[in-house]
Amino acid sequence: MATETPQGLSSFPVTKLCTLLSLGIPVFASVAGVKYWFLLYTDPFISTYKQYYRLMTFQISAVNETDVILITLIWYYYRHLERLLGSRKYLSLIALTWMYTSVVVLVTAWIFNLNPFLKWNRFTTGALPIVMSLFHFYKEHTPRMYRFDVKIIKPLGSRSKQIKWSFNDQFVINALVAILMLNQGLVGVVTAFLSWMCGVFIERGLFPGSEVFRLPLFKKSAQPGPSRGVVAAGPEPSPSESGSLHAAQGENGQEVEPGDEPSDEPARPLGVQFLNTFRM
Amino acid sequence: MEIDGNTLLLVFVFLFILYSNPSGDGVTSQYEYNQLQTLKAQYEQEHMQFSNLSSNHNFRNITGLKLSYGDVLQEPKINATYPIEGKDYDHWFANQNYTLLPESVEYEIKHSVWKTGHNVYPPNVTSTLRGQVKRSHDEEFVVVPMPIPEYYKPAQDLLQNRPSFAEPYDSELGDYQGSRNITFLEGEIVVEILSADTISGLYERETRFQNTQSDRWRFLHLNIHFSDYSENEKHAIRSKAIYDIQNGRILAFSESAKFHSLFALPHYMNLKNEDEATYNQVKTLVEEYWNATDFINTRSMAYLQNSYAVASTSCEFLAFLQLDPWSDFSQEQIRTIDKELTWPLGRSANLSSLPPVNISSGLIYSPDCGVRLQMKNVTGLRYELQVRKMRNLLLLGAVLLASQIYLLLRQMQHTNTPSLVNKISYWSFSLMNLVDGVLAIIFFVMTNSFAALYQPLIVCSFACLILASVFEMRYMISVYASQVNERNVSIFTLLRRNTDGDERPTPTVIPDEASISSSLYRSYVFKMLFSMIAILSVATWPRDLRAPVECLGIFVLSSYWVPQIVRNAVKGNMPRRTETESPTGTSLPQRQSKPPLLWTFVIGTSIIRFLPVAYVYSVPPNIFYHHQDRRFVAVVAAWLFIQIALLYSQDVFGGRWFLPNYTIPDGYKYHKAISSGELLEHGSSENHTIDCAICMNDVAVYVEDIAETHKVDQQSYMVTPCGHIFHTNCLENWMSYKLQCPVCRAPLPPL
């Protein structure tokens, strides 16, 4: 069925990469004690220490555990976008939004700091800006499949009115995005709004590049990955091929068995091998 | 369970035992209550005296300070009592008539240990320093008697309610002096410097210590451990110390039942008679410490008993240390460095160039044992830097473990048939598994003692655990399962690859993987337990004994390829490039000549397992402070190289090249002619063929006494030891899954 999303993430290399990185980098940072690499404050870091590398790193990893989980979950929900756009275009879009949101947020903060009263010092950590601009794309391209109402009759005593909430099938991701936005305070909300505007501008072409810009060094074989259909007639694109980007990134290239002649025993992926250990 | 009267009674008895343990201060009897009250009263009274002291007044009735070195010198039999007739209590000068120090020691402290002249010193010196200690001029000094007050002693019998208050005038010095006298001339010393800004203890409330002069003075806890080089004799001092930040001096006094040293700190800090101000500042600091810890009310029975035990088993020590200045840094830089170390944010503090905390000169003197120790080259990194170093090493270790897991997975994928797995040595992997499992436990236990390194330690422990108890165990189970039909076969039979039928009963029921794995896991758990006990006990041995055992252990654990070499010889693996001439003239590569171990796995594993050994034994400032032994590292490296070279030679020349020919009997031949009698047993058909039980087609066989079958190629069929006949292709395919006869389940010799 066309509307059904394929199981697992094997046909979503970019989503897989993003979810793994948004979990893996914070864990590494925490273990190695380098969480501060991903902090960005105007006051000591930029104005005093001149650590401009932080302008690049502050979106890479969240330092707060809640943000880490939220961002990971949201990346997972965004797998439809990868299916829609194709892996290369999706990755290019992520890179583009990363650049635009960073610039927009930093420039806005700089303009805001021209006022003598209030200072915008702290910036958000984690991929909140990227996620928020992609949220616009998600909303734009994902159809609502169903909606449902929750009616609560007289929730606050006998004289209160009946409360009716309407939800649609996207209410989970809406909630996740809302929590993510609020979790970093006022700065989070402002940054989220700016990034969302960035998303709108990129989509409308006000910020150029979404149609033109493509990341180089992207393997050809990764292209036909998620959207089957035309390719299905040809030689079957094996999951290991579409996952080649992910394998090249070096998480675990276990499933890839190049050059093995087909054997009558089905290949056991790493997960199965792992589980078999406990199966007695 | 039925609840009747007895059960309830039992519950009450349990509750009674649970709740009737001693209260907060650990008092369990009337006698102990009185003991503790006496101690508190004594401290109270001593503190009163201390409050009234000035730099010009001598100590009066303070435990351990009643006598000076001069008093003992004048009258060697003097008793530590108060007041002493003719003693000058109204003045205090820094000489042997007033202090516990003999003149020579005092001179040395004043002129060569402690320096004056302000310089830049780090305010925070929390660290662990290591170096050498040397004993000097033992016999010169008279011993100042420091008797333990009677009320410290435990009750003589159950009826005794009040501790004895008699002062132990006839102090016998013998018992504690003999047992822990320092007999070595040179040894190692470890100085652990802890900041006392936060005070907490087992029975003490956690209190923030308000130090109003933290820019000038710091209150420290100093734990000093020293031993001779072979660790036969170990001494430990727990002391309270004052750190003079401006001059880089540290004064540390041990504290026990016979020496209430806290009250002596201001006087001795002012040993050089600098000014009244120094004395008063240190006195304020001691008072602040006293108040912050609520010193009297927090004394507990545990404290009392502990200080009695320490007093009766060890000497008292006064330590005078001088730090090296950090003159390359300004105060501002040091402040930034301190902040960055405690709360890293990436400030511009060049931490890698931070000098170590270094004691340029140090002297330890024991008044009641008459021992003087000199410190040499005592140095160490700041605590936070040390933690960073350890963290980086642990991360490197985690990377090594991850690559080991990756290599093992590659190896597992390489040997995906039972025939190949059968050639792997179970004991090779068992050795590796032992090391990894023990490492997992050690890392896990270490998480307890290094809270700062919890995360990297737990990551390493987890990686080890996964490697050992999941992947390696999984592999070992399949190796074991593939070799299970060789279990009760003698090694000669294996060498012959021949099953003579009557030699053993053929096990028709081979245990399944579940039972194998449960038995292997059981033995794994016991192995871990046993090796933990062994390691713990070895760790406490003195060095002379420990070092050879350690080396032997590491050597044995590095011999993990030896079982594989033996296994290769037993299985008689074919040389890599042998080609069998098939009768048709084309040469086919031997199917089973693939070496069982991947070369990347062999070399990678050897390197991964060798690196930690090399680090511990050959990098001088390694984090374990392990002694250096480059020769041993070279021996281990050579041994590993020999093993790998042997494995390689077996790969090239065949598994048995080093065995003389006569020791190698012929293996079982699957391709052979059969007799007509055997043909009849198989129910021969007209054209002398037999049904292949696998593909159900006819197999043409070469029968010796029937000439017309002699055109049949003997390579085209196989005869099993149990006498069943199959097509070569059919049986070889089957044998890549199971080494059992498909018809009668008798074990088959591998190809």
From TrEMBL, chain A:
<feature type="transmembrane region" description="Helical">
    <location>
        <begin position="17"/>
        <end position="38"/>
    </location>
</feature>
<keyword id="KW-1133">Transmembrane helix</keyword>
<keyword id="KW-0812">Transmembrane</keyword>
<dbReference type="GO" id="GO:0044695">
    <property type="term" value="C:Dsc E3 ubiquitin ligase complex"/>
</dbReference>
<dbReference type="GO" id="GO:0140624">
    <property type="term" value="P:EGAD pathway"/>
</dbReference>
<dbReference type="GO" id="GO:0016567">
    <property type="term" value="P:protein ubiquitination"/>
</dbReference>
<protein>
    <submittedName>
        <fullName>LALA0S01e01618g1_1</fullName>
    </submittedName>
</protein>
<feature type="transmembrane region" description="Helical">
    <location>
        <begin position="171"/>
        <end position="197"/>
    </location>
</feature>
<feature type="transmembrane region" description="Helical">
    <location>
        <begin position="120"/>
        <end position="138"/>
    </location>
</feature>
<dbReference type="InterPro" id="IPR035952">
    <property type="entry name" value="Rhomboid-like_sf"/>
</dbReference>
<feature type="transmembrane region" description="Helical">
    <location>
        <begin position="58"/>
        <end position="78"/>
    </location>
</feature>
<keyword id="KW-0472">Membrane</keyword>
<feature type="transmembrane region" description="Helical">
    <location>
        <begin position="90"/>
        <end position="114"/>
    </location>
</feature>
<feature type="region of interest" description="Disordered">
    <location>
        <begin position="223"/>
        <end position="280"/>
    </location>
</feature>
TrEMBL record, chain B:
<dbReference type="InterPro" id="IPR001841">
    <property type="entry name" value="Znf_RING"/>
</dbReference>
<dbReference type="GO" id="GO:0008270">
    <property type="term" value="F:zinc ion binding"/>
</dbReference>
<dbReference type="GO" id="GO:0044695">
    <property type="term" value="C:Dsc E3 ubiquitin ligase complex"/>
</dbReference>
<feature type="transmembrane region" description="Helical">
    <location>
        <begin position="597"/>
        <end position="618"/>
    </location>
</feature>
<keyword id="KW-0732">Signal</keyword>
<keyword id="KW-1133">Transmembrane helix</keyword>
<dbReference type="GO" id="GO:0140624">
    <property type="term" value="P:EGAD pathway"/>
</dbReference>
<keyword id="KW-0812">Transmembrane</keyword>
<comment type="pathway">
    <text>Protein modification; protein ubiquitination.</text>
</comment>
<dbReference type="GO" id="GO:0043161">
    <property type="term" value="P:proteasome-mediated ubiquitin-dependent protein catabolic process"/>
</dbReference>
<protein>
    <recommendedName>
        <fullName>RING-type E3 ubiquitin transferase</fullName>
        <ecNumber>2.3.2.27</ecNumber>
    </recommendedName>
</protein>
<feature type="transmembrane region" description="Helical">
    <location>
        <begin position="424"/>
        <end position="446"/>
    </location>
</feature>
<feature type="transmembrane region" description="Helical">
    <location>
        <begin position="393"/>
        <end position="412"/>
    </location>
</feature>
<keyword id="KW-0808">Transferase</keyword>
<feature type="transmembrane region" description="Helical">
    <location>
        <begin position="452"/>
        <end position="471"/>
    </location>
</feature>
<keyword id="KW-0863">Zinc-finger</keyword>
<dbReference type="Pfam" id="PF11145">
    <property type="entry name" value="DUF2921"/>
</dbReference>
<feature type="transmembrane region" description="Helical">
    <location>
        <begin position="524"/>
        <end position="541"/>
    </location>
</feature>
<keyword id="KW-0472">Membrane</keyword>
<keyword id="KW-0833">Ubl conjugation pathway</keyword>
<feature type="signal peptide">
    <location>
        <begin position="1"/>
        <end position="24"/>
    </location>
</feature>
<dbReference type="InterPro" id="IPR013083">
    <property type="entry name" value="Znf_RING/FYVE/PHD"/>
</dbReference>
